[in-house]
Amino acid sequence: MIKKLLLGLLGLLLALAVALGVNTWRQGSRQVAVPPAPPLPLDLDAAAGRLAGALRLRTVSSLENPTGSAAAFDALHAYLAQHYPRAHAALQREVVGQQALLYTWKGRDAAAPAIVVMAHQDVVPIAPGTEKAWSVDPFAGEVKDGFIWGRGALDNKGNLFAQMEAVEALLASGFQPARTIYFAMGADEEVSGLRGAVPITELLQSRGVKLDWVLDEGLLVLDGVLPGLSKPAALIGVAEKGYATFFLSLDTAPGHSSMPPQHSAIGQMSAALARLEATPMSGGIRGVARDMFGTLAPEMSGLNRFMLTNLWLTAPLVQGQLEKSPSSNAMLRTTTALTIVRAGNKDNVLPGRAEAAVNFRVLPGDTLAGVEAHLRRALGNDAIQVKAYPGNSEPSPISPTAHAGYRHIERAVREVFPDAVVAPGLMTAATDSRHFTTLSPAVYRFSPIRVSGEDLARFHGTNERLPVAAYGDMIRFYLQILRASAQPS
């Protein structure tokens, strides 16, 4: 009897192994086969010099001081008009809100749904005390050793100027789009987009504009970053996480440090924060993450391909590995980040108030209300007051990969980066595009920049720089996007 059971079990295991192997083998590549894009029809060194000049303009946005860099933004607007005369003659330019720009390139068919291509003018400041760590002054705007150096080269003036280079080149060739193309260029993306992107969407809505799809900055061409994938991965963001900050406060009686109570304000707040950090929200390989891994799996080999192709069985093991890395863990769940703690002002005085802030990046499928409920449960202390930040936003809807907009982007990526694997991805940071989801169900987030793991630290970090060759690829990408997507649907 036992022998028959063992033989039966062995047979089942063998059948399972065969089924898993067949399933792995059957999953073929989902990549689009297209010919490479033609050579870049412009002087790349001159284009790099134009971008470098823009990096010298300190268009640093501020939430507290909205007009602090107004002169720099005005100078950037004049710089754009000077260096892209064809675009400024053919396109309608409007200043929206305080410093945001909206360019309208009218198409031949006024009834055709328009598209929006986005970038932002503003940059983040240099972290105090890190200026000397830069190899080149962050606002020198130099082209040196094959790189364009300066704050904003990667985020996000590179995108903006690559778009303008593409428009100028197309106009020089006599191109006119079949349908209208808008270029939306916010001036406060780094601090919310409420003064730029939001007024632009309100203006378009007031005019009854119908948008087919939207392309903003976002995920990248990651070279050597994803374990198990020998090819670069070009991830197109089909959604972005929501943003949720909550401010916590706890009031107790202040007192002398020589007679401390059993539970002080600092102790209670610290214990609550420790409980919160130890209680992450539930996660899993689902939604966008599952689509991404399903697309990447056929491009892998060996064990990685086997594990990702058979997630119906291997998901717990794969998830355990992904959770070990902050970047991949962020794709699986709503993340919890303790960002501010304040209490006390003298070493021998027990403070009567302890404050903290916690920031969640909300996974599509979760909600702000659900996050707040989780927060209150995990803190485990009803004496702690919770106040939501007014700028909190729900996660974006998930844009379809079957849409023409996604297909245009996918094709352009394959034309410019033929060695890359294209897959949908989740944007874990916030972009201006989240304000455009009311205008179109198809909002995509992709920056056509090839980066290594080392380069990722340069975004908002020290020694931000863009290879001149990579800038050429960016311009070629936008040329392909505008050529193809501006034709009738």
Task: Record the SSE blueprint.
Elements: H1 2-26, H2 44-55, H3 70-83, H4 85-90, E1 92-96, E2 100-105, E3 114-120, E4 142-144, E5 147-149, H5 157-172, E6 181-186, H6 197-206, E7 211-222, E8 233-240, E9 242-251, E10 255-256, H7 265-277, H8 287-296, H9 302-309, H10 311-322, H11 326-329, E11 335-343, E12 349-350, E13 353-362, H12 368-379, E14 385-388, H13 404-416, E15 421-427, E16 443-451, H14 453-456, E17 465-467, H15 468-485
Parallel strand pairs: 3-6, 3-7, 7-16, 8-15
Antiparallel strand pairs: 1-2, 2-6, 4-5, 5-17, 7-8, 9-13, 9-14, 10-12, 11-13
What would you say this structure looks like, in words?
Helix content is 36%, strand content 22%. The chain is an alpha+beta fold and 489 residues long. Strands 1, 2, 3, 6, 7, 8, 15 and 16 form an 8-stranded mixed sheet that branches. Helix 5 (157-172) crosses helix 15 (468-485). It starts with a helix and ends with a helix. The mean pLDDT is 93.
Summarize the structure.
This protein is 36% helix and 22% strand. By secondary structure, it is α+β, with helices and mostly antiparallel strands.
Tell me the span between the first and last alpha carbons.
Answer: 67 Å
Note poorly predicted spans.
Answer: none
Give Rg in angstroms.
25 Å
Relative helix content: 25-40%
List keywords for this structure.
4-stranded antiparallel sheet, globular, 15 helices, 489 residues, alpha+beta
